[in-house]
Amino acid sequence: MVDSCIKITIVDLSASYGAVCALKSLSLDVREGEILSVIGPSNSGKTTFLRCLNRFNDTNPHFSHRGMVTINGIDIYGNIDVEMLRKKVGMVFALPTVLPMSVWENAAYGLRRHGIRDERMIALSVENSLRAAYLWDEVKDRLEAAALNLSGGQQQRLCLARTLAVEPDIILYDEPCSGLDPISTAKIEEAMIHFKDKYTQILVTNNTKQAARVGNRTAFFLMGQMVELDATNKIFTSPSDQRTEDYISGRFG
Amino acid sequence: MLERHWTWHRVKEFLIEKCIYLSGVTSIVIVALIFIFLAKEGFALFKTVGVGEFLLGIKWYPISHPAQFGILPLIIGSLVVTIGATLIAVPIGVASAVYISEVASGKIKEVLKSGIEVLAAIPSVVLGFIGMMTLVPWVKAVFNLPTGLTAFSGALMLGFMAMPTIVSIAEDALNAVPKRYKEAALALGATRWQAIWRVVFPAASSGIVAAVMLGIGRVIGETMAVMMITGNAARIPTTIFEPVRTLTATIAAEMGETVRGSDHYSALFAIGIVLFIITFMINLIADIAVHHKAK
Predict the structure, then answer these.
(1) A159 touching B, CB under 8 A?
(2) Which fold has domain B60-294?
């Protein structure tokens, strides 16, 4: 593989909240257009890792880090525009976090905040992103309804659409299906697989089967360290570390 | 086996239930009795003075002969002081609530919160006294007035008194907005101010309206400080730099010198009815605002 395919480079990244160390010298590369699944038990540093990529840990005053994260070769902990970074690195949370406004305004929220005023452009972008998140057909007749009245699965797809609308390069998913029914989960996974090549995606999940279904590569985290990173097939059939095998086969975690 | 028995457990349940019921009924009955008493004493006035003459009359000479009971100057006095205090207290109060809840961190937040609570705990007569000694001479000197006892001084003082109410309730409302709303906005690349203004603030708006209304309620009902600071002249003011007299101050100042059952006595109770109606309307508006948003 040549270097131009590398989207995110993480070198010796350690992160802590106050005295609690959440991530210990992590180094890995994420390739452009792949889906990287991250699995591991709770408190293994998965979410901390994800939040380092869009500098979301900055909102926590106790957070500190060492090491380097570069996206497209740019050090994101250097002197950069954090709002622009978060636009380019979208995030879908574990719980659907639709805003208390209409379906339409939710999808248009990011665009408006980035100063887009042309209503035709907004309309086009909203429709495209709702279609891409497989939600358009279900909500096209009630775009003015309160988003909080949608079902949990629809809300989560709306969150995905909202993220897509601001045209990110990278999408981070933080256990996106942990509260969803199987059909909604399938739709989200379908969307993710559909986005392959277009976006670089990182999926943190507690559901190892989901990691196996959608990930090109899978990383296994344990107690703040990355134990193993390999092709998803390899991780789920013949992992090289005993702890990975124990976790996947359900012996702990 | 399954028959009901009067076990100790069941008796206890019965007693607790009845006690709670009785407490609830008592508070309602007391409120009703207060209102009936107020109405009975107040309406007696309207046998001798017409309602229009009372509400719109511009002369309040309760002890001259013949006595005149026009409360328009008092209503205007209350309105001027209340509107002035609201204009001062609401922007500053809401802004401090936003600062405390969304911007300030750790230590500063704690200091500010307890400071606001201390401010709320100062008795109004003390604030009135401080106002009389510091604010009134200041207003007199700065605006070059014959007296510092003006509607403006009253509004300023009451604004400070309403602020703790507004800040603490608005801050609660802002804190009650789930943190994930703000996170969602930030994750889309919104700045912190955009997230606060476009997401957190609208989500808390019904609580903020309630805070403002309670603040206004506090101002309208305030008596002691306003009586000490506003000069108590029952005339319709032409500017805010003139003395005014409020509805509440009139009742407090004159109730000692009335003869029970006289027209003057009834007139003070009638003022009480007017005050009651005004505060009732404010609470009603707050209620409608809160429930309208909740839908």
Answers:
(1) yes
(2) MetI-like fold (1.10.3720)
Is B1's pLDDT higher than 70?
no
Q: Is B189–A163 a contact, with Cβ atoms under 8 angstroms apart?
A: no
Q: Look at chain A and report how many structural domains it folds into.
A: 1
User: What is the DSSP secondary-structure string of B131-185?
Assistant: IIIIIHHHHHHHTT-S-S-SHHHHHHHHHHHHHHHHHHHHHHHHHTS-HHHHHHH
Q: Per the domain annotation, does A91 fall within a domain?
A: yes
Contact (Cβ atoms closer than 8 angstroms) between residue B242 and residue B149: no
In a domain, A59, yes or no: yes
Q: Do A97 and B184 touch (CB under 8 A)?
A: yes
Supply the CATH number for residue A218's domain.
3.40.50.300
Is 0.85 exceeded by the ipTM? no
| Structural domain for A185, as ranges | 3-248
Q: How far is CA B6 from CA B3, B111, B235, in A?
A: 10, 55, 69
Q: Is A99 on the interface with B (CB under 8 A)?
A: yes
Q: Distance (Å, rounded) from C-alpha A82 to C-alpha A67?
A: 18
Within a domain: A253: no
pTM over 0.80: no
Q: Kindly report, residue by residue over B169-186, the tens digit of the pLDDT.
A: 999 999 999 888 998 999
Cβ–Cβ below 8 Å for A113 and B188:
yes
